[in-house]
Amino acid sequence: MKENCSYDLGNSKSRKIPLISNKPDIDFNHLNSNEETLIVNQQLVLDAFRCCVKKKDMTSFAKLLVQCVSPDLLFNENLWGDEDPRDGQLQSLRITIERDLFIWRAFNANPLLWDLCELIGKAECLNHCLVLIRALMTVQRTHWASTSLTKENIFETQRLLTLLSSTGILPAEPFSHVAAVLSQLQAWEVSCILNDICKYLKDSTLGQLEGQSLKPYVERLRIIMAHNLPGPLFVNIFRGLK
Q1: Which residues form the Integrator complex subunit 5 C-terminal domain (predicted)?
Q2: Is 8 contained in some domain?
């Protein structure tokens, strides 16, 4: 009580205490649109998560996020099901597709989920959210196989690839450069690259990459970039790649 009384509230009914020190105050007088208000609200919620969730608790937070976003936890154990199922597995495949679409729509409707995944990734706990990553990657891969380039679609794929390469789920070399060159590729080329990335994620999750070369997963990327973007960037990416 004494600590509460020590704050000088002045004429205001409530005191605005910033969640993060040395952060510039938000000028609420200049928020004239719903979009600006939404951005501020998202930032405040994200700041609250940063302050409340410690690094040691990030694993539990990641698992809780999966439980909140994924509609069916019973099928989360089988991350990478058979893409060519036999008789009797079609029901599982249908549920998996529906789950992937549900998760993708959730991220589209709630952009804050991207920020939360980035927060989890900085704590090196994104591997506990592979159900979400797998769903987003699968939907993106299917989407690029049947569409053309648009600014919105490119941004979603760029954000996903940047998240994976910056948090160690994908090797920084060469995948950290893929997001920057997507706008210069054809849709089918993007689909081929995402197919190889999905295969890498599947094999790495199943523990099949020990002692293996990365080349089988980047060969098509190398050919596509050699055709579209020959030059210093291509040399820097693939020089010395094993």
Answers
A1: 58-204
A2: no
Q: Which tens digit of pLDDT belongs to each residue from 51-82?
A: 888 888 899 999 999 988 987 665 555 555 55
Tallying the residues shown for the chain, one arrives at 242
pLDDT digits (tens, 9 = 90+) for 2-47: 555 554 444 444 344 444 445 445 454 554 557 788 788 888 888 8
Domain total in the chain = 1
Question: Is position 25 within any domain?
Answer: no
